[in-house]
Write a structure and sequence with these properties.
about 120 residues, 5 helices, about 0% strand, elongated
């Protein structure tokens, strides 16, 4: 009869490969969590600056990413850097961002901005 402990044992030489694989997975998960946080922060900025609905914020980032051929997390990082006053928005990102935000605001996805 084998115990559950015996079933979890790996043959010699497999520990290193398994450990390396687990370390890679942990690194990928950490990167994904960090990227998600950056995107969420950028969505918050778009909500505040352009007055769009939270659900539309991700769509605006996605559209900008597709139209500029820039990865979504890179667009989000640019938005955050701009909001913090660290850098201007790259020209194609700024133009696409304004256009997408206006489209989503006009579609009734967000309340009208007080004027």
């Amino acid at each position: 009869m084998t115990t559950s402990r015996d079933q979890r044992c790996l043959p010699d030489g497999m520990w290193g490969a398994t450990l390396e694989q687990l370390q890679q997975e942990i690194a990928q998960l950490r990167q994904a969590v960090g990227s998600h946080a950056v995107v969420d922060q950028a969505i918050g900025i778009l909500i505040a600056v352009h007055g769009i609905a939270p659900g539309a914020g991700f769509e605006v980032l996605r559209v900008v990413s597709q139209h500029t051929n820039i990865k979504l997390h890179t667009v989000a990082e640019a938005v955050i850097g701009w909001a913090l006053g660290e850098q201007p928005l790259p020209e194609p990102v700024g133009e696409e961002l304004d256009a997408a935000a206006q489209r989503y605001s006009r579609q009734g996805d967000a309340p009208a901005r007080p004027g």
